[in-house]
Amino acid sequence: MTKTLYMMRHGETLFNRLKKIQGSCDSPLTAKGIADAQRVGTYFQEHAITFDHAYSSTQERASDTLELVTKQPYERLKGIKEWGFGVFEGESEVLNPRPDPIRRSHGDFFCQYGGESDLQVQARVVKTLTAVMARPDHHQVLAVSHGGASFMFLRRWLSMDEIERRGIVLSNCAVLKYQYDNGAFKFEKIINLSSADGNNN
């Protein structure tokens, strides 16, 4: 039986605005982040999109976003928290390395500094969300996560070439819609309602 997952990135935070690396560390939502999350909640209401279950990562920026989107009960999951960047947490984004030319991501770079690799992040998010969607009473689910975690999940199901071809950009409050069946996810579309974006590919 096909099920549906809506995977959402949290709203803009202070660290997002200041261009700081934000993985395991946290910062509050900005006024824009709050407004964009509320905009997504309105979109779901207007399109009669409801959820039988809702989840957020254990980080406050994700749970705060979810509470602005819906008032329903939810559960926090460590498995969908953001990529851990080790000693780079809270530092300027200019310190991020250039993408690994083969993996086309940060690869293993952060492991030497106490963080995670891209594949470690991907594995835990895929494992967590597969277990969630395999539950018998989970048919339409909302999961609020993070940019890096959501992007590595997406890359499990779409190649980097296909992501670029479709022009998929994971801005704050972007929602990725997937169909789930028998342990596999199929990307359907992205919904970008941020006040600075209009991409609905």
Give the gist of this structure.
With 201 residues, this protein is α/β, with parallel strands linked by helices. It is built from 6 helices and 6 strands. It has a single domain (3-191), classed as Rossmann fold, CATH 3.40.50.
Descriptive notes:
By secondary structure, the chain is α/β, with parallel strands linked by helices. It is built from six helices and six strands, in the order E-H-H-E-H-E-H-E-H-H-E-E. It has helices at residues 14-17, 31-46, 60-69, 118-133, 147-157, 160-166; strands at residues 3-9, 53-57, 75-77, 140-145, 175-181, 184-191. The chain has a six-stranded mixed beta sheet, with helices on both faces. Helix 2 (31-46) packs across helix 3 and helix 4 packs across helix 5 (147-157). One of its GO terms (cellular component) is cytoplasm. Substrate binds at residues 9-16, 61. InterPro entries: His_Pase_superF_clade-1, His_PPase_superfam, PG/BPGM_mutase_AS, PGM_Phosphatase. GO terms for molecular function: phosphatase activity.
